[in-house]
Amino acid sequence: MTVLEARDLTKLYGDHLALDRLNIAVAAGETLCLLGANGAGKTTTLNLFLGFTAPTSGQALVSGHDVAADPAAARAALGYVAEVVSLYPSLSGAENLAFFAQLAGQAPRATQRDAILDRLRFPASAIARPAGDYSKGMRQKLGLAIALMKGAKAILLDEPLSGLDPAAANDLVAVLRETAAGGTALLVSTHDIFRAKDVATRIGIMRHGRLVDTVDPGALSGPELESLYLTHMAERAA
Ligand SMILES: Nc1ncnc2c1ncn2[C@@H]1O[C@H](COP(=O)(O)OP(=O)(O)OP(=O)(O)O)[C@@H](O)[C@H]1O
After folding, report:
1. In this structure, what are the phi and psi dihedrals at residue 211, rounded to the nearest 5 degrees?
2. Which CA distances in Å does 230 have to 190, 206, 207?
3. Which atom of ligand 1 approaches the CA of 44 most closely?
4. How does pLDDT run across 135-145, given as a tens digit for each residue?
5. Which of 7, 24, 57, 151 is the most buried (most CB within 10 A)?
6. 43, 158 Cβ separation under 8 angstroms
7. pLDDT of residue 25
8. Which atom of ligand 1 is least distant from the CA of 34?
9. Atom 28, ligand 1: which residue's CA is nearest?
């Protein structure tokens, strides 16, 4: 079942074409990684699904709801994990979770919360500590927990693995794979070819606002994917 869909999604900033007729579909249980250099249009794509900016033409749909036409319904089905997850630093992880759950109109039980934290391998001893002390990996996990507690059908993640040490990145990759396997659709923006291969069920290569290729990560080795990516980056814009 398709959860996220872009139909000829296009965004102009002034006369600059940031996104050019993007067509993607992400089903429940899938992870699509958008891979591309700075300025390729990855964040613009996420922002259009989130309704942070309006498309110039085309549609972004979440669980069948057009984001521009019915932003509340689309947003209700979406979770978002920003590159830097905003938390209240003086509140504990538990208090942050309770606050954001309330904001989303949810009142999850402690058992449900604990099951989600357990699944995300969030250290139980840390949940009562102020969120200001959390590492980036812990903040990402709390961001995921907020999305899962909300019951999001799709979660968008902007550069979730950048700035993580290798152990924390490996751990988060495993957590993201398990989250998708649980039936959530994930759309991830990244610069990191090798991590994209680890986490994705499909990789979309973007350049200058266009999706120039879609790759099955299982069909290519890491070096082959890198070589394909570099070939696309070297091609002159059409
Ligand atoms: N609010 C804005 N106003 C004008 N131009 C913008 C705006 N947001 C993005 N752009 C431009 O649109 C293009 C796509 O940017 P976008 O942030 O989507 O790329 P990206 O692939 O996410 O890059 P990065 O990896 O650096 O985050 C870039 O040329 C960028 O300068």
Report:
1. -85, 110
2. 15, 12, 11
3. 18
4. 999 999 999 99
5. 24
6. yes
7. 97
8. 21
9. 39
